[in-house]
């Protein structure tokens, strides 16, 4: 009888310990999840997000920036590769916490998501030869021959302007080669494409002009019902600007002034 009673007590003790253990495990898991910032991005938009062959981690300006933001928040960025059209639905379904993917802030998207403070200003910019003095802005392109990548916004906007001869080429690299060969007087592309090319190839004999056409701003998208996270993201982004970390990331990928 005593043995049976002892066995019952022993079994009950084990069950209690097991329940306590399970509760602790659940609590630890919740803590771990709270430290993760689930990020959605479309990994095919260099220099903002891409994956080099043989590299495990996603690379790019956006990727470095969101990791730095998460670190400021005491979290770790967990990045998921999602098709661009699926990013906002994934955010609305709570499958991710934020989106960073070269996403332009516009009124249509604002109806579905909230945005952080802008973290990058894009738009069309020009690259000319270093010895070019006649072209200082888009207004100076009349009477000149200009290269742009075929089928892009750059090419289409240039063709709408009077007095500009537009040469459409297959790649940005082709455009720069034509500029160096003096086949054209300027190259027009999206700002990050121009800046990235000059930075990564250590291009000499050319310069990027500050004049910008059709400016647009990129932002980090957050669910509309998560205003607290939006505040945390903005605070972390501001801190990165204040302590110089944002400038370091920017210089790494673009190598030019903002």
TrEMBL record:
Keywords: Signal. CDD domains: PBP2_Arg_Lys_His. One of its GO terms (molecular function) is ligand-gated monoatomic ion channel activity. It is found in: Cell envelope. InterPro entries: Iontro_rcpt_C, SBP_3_CS, Solute-binding_3/MltF_N. Its main location: other. Pfam families: SBP_bac_3. It comes from the Bacteria. PROSITE patterns: PROKAR_LIPOPROTEIN, SBP_BACTERIAL_3. Residues 36-256 form the Ionotropic glutamate receptor C-terminal domain. Residues 36-257 form the Solute-binding protein family 3/N-terminal domain. GO terms for cellular component: cell envelope; membrane. Belongs to the bacterial solute-binding protein 3 family. This is ABC transporter, substrate-binding protein, family 3.
